[in-house]
Write a structure and sequence with these properties.
InterPro entries: Enoyl-ACP_Rdtase_NADH, NAD(P)-bd_dom_sf, SDR_fam
Number of strands: 7
Number of domains: 1
Active site: 150, 160
Oligomer: single chain
Family: Belongs to the short-chain dehydrogenases/reductases (SDR) family. FabI subfamily.
Strand order of the largest sheet: 3-2-1-4-5-6-7
CATH architecture: 3-Layer(aba) Sandwich
Bound molecules: nicotinamide-adenine-dinucleotide
GO molecular function: enoyl-[acyl-carrier-protein] reductase (NADH) activity
Pfam families: adh_short_C2 (PF13561)
Length: 274
């Protein structure tokens, strides 16, 4: 469905790795809504080359950048402004990685070098992205900056490991930097807290299938999928959300406000059905 909600808007989309990536769906929907953008990902993540397909389908340029590297980010933002022929209206940070999760290291036995790497990639990179855009003064007035997060920042999900702490830090950066963006440029900064979603990053979490099924049964509207998340991102980039800022926005079918649902409770009532 296209209503040209983003006609004339320019942006940068971080984190499209393959067709399952949330950022991939965001790029497709932003394109359908009339936006122009540059795609970026870590050089190492581009080896599979799938992002070329997305670039072709959306008429976008790819500029590789490690989101933890300030030189890469500087080149990316300068390159994007030059290619798009003007300042930016939106930025999507859709980046997450924990070495401890990847290597199956338990939360009570973390490797701190790995922790620092994951924290830099998953949380500090959001500050680095915004600081680069700030120093280059390359956001338009009333622009919108978004990062994706997960509710393990507020509630305990044991297998989410040190990513829970990274997400808490990420959400705090959104509020802290969002203040300065608002005052200086009327730019809004928010995080979207998305349901568990079957992607490369998601399925790195131990027992992820069970986790997805549980969240689905707990949520009155069921889990939100990647396409639905992309629609929410489009809305946050559109002019319909100009005064929404410093928020952590739950996009989870209602999960975050549930205690228990009938269908989950049924599993624990003796004799099965209520
Ligand atoms: N999948 C879920 O269940 C879920 C739920 C809530 C939030 N999120 C968040 O959504 C975002 C996108 O993840 P996804 O689920 O689409 O998975 P994904 O694996 O498709 O995307 C993660 C991206 O991060 C990129 N990345 C890693 N290191 C990088 C670096 N140094 N520089 C630049 N990019 C780097 C990867 O290449 C990849 O494209 C992440 O922030 C994730 O935590 C995911």
């Amino acid at each position: 469905m296209s209503n040209n909600l983003l006609a004339g808007k320019k942006g940068i989309i971080f984190g499209a790795l393959n067709k399952d990536s949330i950022a991939w769906k965001v790029a497709e929907q932003c394109h359908a809504q009339g936006a122009e953008f540059v795609l970026t990902n870590a050089p190492i993540a581009m080896r599979m080359g799938e992002i070329n397909e997305l670039a072709e389908a959306t008429g976008s340029l790819i500029i590789p950048a490690d989101a933890t590297n300030m030189e890469d980010l500087d080149k990316l933002f300068k390159g994007a402004v030059e290619h798009l022929g003007g300042k930016l209206d939106f930025v999507l940070h859709s980046i997450g990685m924990s070495v401890n999760v990847r290597k199956g290291k338990h939360y009570t036995d973390l490797n701190y070098d790995w922790l620092e790497k994951g924290w830099d990639v998953s949380a500090v990179s959001f500050h680095k992205v915004m600081q680069t855009a700030w120093n280059l003064d390359c956001m338009n007035e009333w622009g919108s900056i978004l990062a994706l997060t997960y509710m393990a920042a507020q509630r305990t999900f044991p297998d989410y490991n040190d990513m829970a702490d990274n997400k808490a830090y990420l959400e705090s950066i959104a509020r802290s930097f969002g203040y300065h963006w608002g005052v200086k440029k009327n730019v809004r900064v928010n995080t979207i807290s998305q349901s568990p979603t079957m992607t490369t990053a998601g399925s790195g979490v131990k027992g992820f299938d069970g986790f997805v099924a549980y969240a689905d049964k707990m949520s009155p509207l069921g889990n939100a999928d990647a396409d639905e998340c992309a629609s929410y991102c489009v809305m946050m980039f559109s002019d319909f959300t100009k005064k929404v800022t410093l928020q952590n926005l739950y996009h989870d079918g209602g999960f975050s406000n549930m205690g228990v649902s009938d269908v989950v409770m049924d599993q624990f009532i003796s004799g099965g059905e209520k």
